[in-house]
Fold DNA ligase.
Amino acid sequence: MLSDSPSGKVAGGAVTGDVPHSVPMLSLDNVFSAEELSKWVTGLERNLGREVTAWCVEPKLDGMAVAARYRAGRLHQLLTRGDGLAGEDISHAADAVLGLPAALAEPVDVELRGEVLLTHEQFGHANRLRAEHGATPFAHPRSGTAGTLRAKDRPYRVELTFYAYGAVGLDEDLGHSALLERLAALGANTAATTPAHPRRCATPEDVQRRIEEIAALRASLPFGIDGVVVKADSAADQRDAGTGSRAPRWAVARKLAAEHKVTRLLDVEWNVGRTGIIAPRAVLEPVEIDGVIVTYATLHNPADITRRDLRIGDQVFVYRAGDVIPRVEAPLVDQRTGEERPIAFPEACPRCGDAVDTGEQRWRCTRGRDCQAVASVVYAAGRDQLDIEGLGRTRAVQLVEAGLVTDIADLFTLTRDQLLALERMGDTSTDNLLAAIGTARSRPLARVFCALGVRGTGRTMSRRIAAHFGSMAAVRAADAETLAAVDGIGAEKARVIVAELADLAPLLDKLAAQDVGTAVTEPLARAAAADAAADAVAGENAVGGDGEARPAGAGPLTGQAVVVTGSMTGPLAALSRNEMNELVERAGGKASSAVSGRTTLLVAGEKAGSKRAKAETLGIPILTPDEFADRVAAYLP
Ligand code: IVH
């Protein structure tokens, strides 16, 4: 028989059909917790009628089991596990398997058993190679290993790694840890070369500790593991415990939670980073991976999406290990229903609307870092923020490109001469813009805060924060706990806001120097605290009903929870929804967007739909825009 191995690593030859194993290749029983493991130990020791002499604890490598037959120290045949009784001859693949020497250090007849896998590095390399050859990427290392071991006649070479964890035909009396040392001395690779190396443990407590150590190392290991294997170390204990039909009774796998899960790709979002990189992010049907609910995962870049042929609606493999950001690895092509849709790539920058530079793998906004400036100026100048008429995207681009504006504070130092020097800026438009900026200077805190574009805060939240604190200085001084007292801000959002404000400190200083956002009003926080103190003095229950901030000043809407719906008419026709909400709050009420049992008044304009119906069902008073305008006449802008 001729060798099938291109470089002759395998000295024997390949046969077709399944090859019987010399000794069955067994599986392992599983336990899923420390308690189950402890029960398993008790059971084993009961069967033995004595304590286990010592244990060996080692990683459960997530690859494919193989048997490597050596004759007189030379690699003769490589087999898969198959059904455990007979396996497939994969000798052709032996050359590509690192850690599986062509010749051992001694001329022994032995069958090494162990796991072949793709390390993370080999996996990445394999997928790059496959991309270059127009092949779809491997979904994950295990399927990549299986595919690579079986493949013949590939035009490229994918390297794999072998780790030995057993042998047939060596000194029967060697304990497991001694056997591993012997295998390493013969030249085979073992997990001893990794941080998760096998450890001999004296007691079940030591075993548990080592399991926890290996589990903690998981994310930093160079390969995937799906558990930790616990083995009775001594040959005598193994012999006496014996072997079941499926698995040995002296070893068990303590399984760790899966790092890969399959879920559905619902959407792809495109986010623009600080430098203008436009990065795709997968929105997933929430899936629990190792105790964490994953709803978003990174997708690398458009080319990668194309290469993987990902589609919206696909079932995808999602990988998450330790603190690593979850990532989408591959679609399950054979699970497609035909309903999947292609992923739309952005034609314009999703942040500033400018052109996209698609020249590199990672797409970018052509404005690079300036994209952020343009987008933040456009947003800040918007109607519900600083409301600077005449400052749209084109103007913002012009100002940023001329180097006059890098952030929104720079708007307030623009001079007439600077503006006149710009193209298409005549006297009138310059004066109008300067006037609009002048008006914007005195916008109330809620508007200025909203203009900052702090993550997690929109118009409503900005109004609440402004009302709660009364001044930008007080907002800036607030820690997460204080911020979390604002209605609707949880602990998590509070932390984000604190971090964002810290990042924005230089901008906030610049704005303060321009006297923008420095107006001070009576904060609700203090009013509420004072009320509570007064209540306490009066001996009443100082804990406020639902903990919501109450309006500072009295007005026609004091104590009212107001929802506005439909289109406004009459004196309210020109007001945006945000301006309506501001009006409600000026008049002493609390504005919200959804009708609930707590709503006390609905302002329903034309084309009011489900909110009106719900208010009617709940018996909530409903006013037309005109009736409402009458009631708050004194507070109209
Ligand atoms: S010992 C006679 N040790 O796990 C005992 N197996 O679920 C048989 N595996 O088919 C296996 N790492 O492919 C053993 N350190 C390790 C292992 C390991 C991974 C795999 C092996 C086996 C499967 C059983």
Q: What stands out?
A: Confidence is low (pLDDT under 50) at residues 1-6, 531-552. The longest strand covers residues 260-272. The chain has 21 helices and 25 strands. The pocket of 2-(butylsulfanyl)adenosine is lined by residues 26-28, 58, 60-61, 65, 81, 115, 165-166, 229, 248, 251, 253 (CB under 6 Å).
